[in-house]
Amino acid sequence: MNTMNWLLKREHWEHKGGFFWAPIVVSGIIVLISIGSMLFATVMGRDGGFHIGGNSDVSLSQALASVSQADKLEIAQGIAVGYPAIAMPVMVTLGFVVFFYALGCLYDERKDRSILFWKSLPISDRDTVVAKALTALVVGPLIAIAVSLALALLVTFTFMLLAAFHGMNLFGAVLGNGNFYLVILQILSFIPIYVLWALPTVGYLMFVSSWAKTKPFLWAVGVPVLGGVILSWINLLSGSPFELDKYWEIIVGRGLGSAFPGTWLGYVSEQNAHITPDNALGFLLSNTYSLLATANLWIGVAIGLAFLAAAVKMRRYRDEG
């Protein structure tokens, strides 16, 4: 266990730029745009510019003061259940970080010959590969979620402060809403599904990373995409002898794109339900966990584990770039 903890720390130290600073930079951009937009609206609406009833031109303070109590509660409910949505670009960034980390983590150590140093230590190839997989599948998402929540809370509290400054106090209604806290647990509940869903992509990329002597991106992405293009070209010339929809969906889409959070939503069977702001995230979580009953998920898990086992074997015998 101490060895695994040390290996995870090593991965974090070596790849802090991707797993920590990339979400921070994206969050900083979102904060600047969001808060800048709110301040701009505050300044522009200070002396007028808002129309109520289609006739009057009122200031921002007057517009907010005219909001009814029922509307305030509805706004507060929307904030309580939806405030993390502003951090979606951070989760997209996570997908790219995980993809390129998995693609380079075993190749780079052969390229710079650092593998010779790590192999001189009493650390097995299995532990090294497992630590890298855990970094991509668990540590990275946890860091991204933490940064996302910090971003969402900062923007949300800034919005509520500006609203309070203009006479609409939302703090009590938002902070007294249980969904404001429950949504954090619901977001964390997506991690187990992400681990299982992303496993085939991460396993495949790590295998290519352990095997490729040069240009792992071309091998990992270029070969399946080029294969699809060639088959499509053959179809065009010979009258469509191949059914390629599943190829692009499973080999390219599922095989290469599963590192991106939320890509499983296209594979879940939606239940008939009336979606409201109150139950939207719970409905999404319920549909997400329905994947546990699908062969798609578990076949992908088996393939991902097989690729990781192959990556362990390849690392054992490929010492040099």
Automatic annotation (TrEMBL):
Keyword entries, A-Z: Membrane, Transmembrane, Transmembrane helix
Keyword ATP-binding: no
Residues that span the membrane, as ranges: 20-41, 86-108, 129-160, 180-205, 217-236, 289-312
Domain of life (superkingdom): Bacteria
Official protein name in the record: ABC transporter permease
Organism for this UniProt entry: Arenimonas maotaiensis
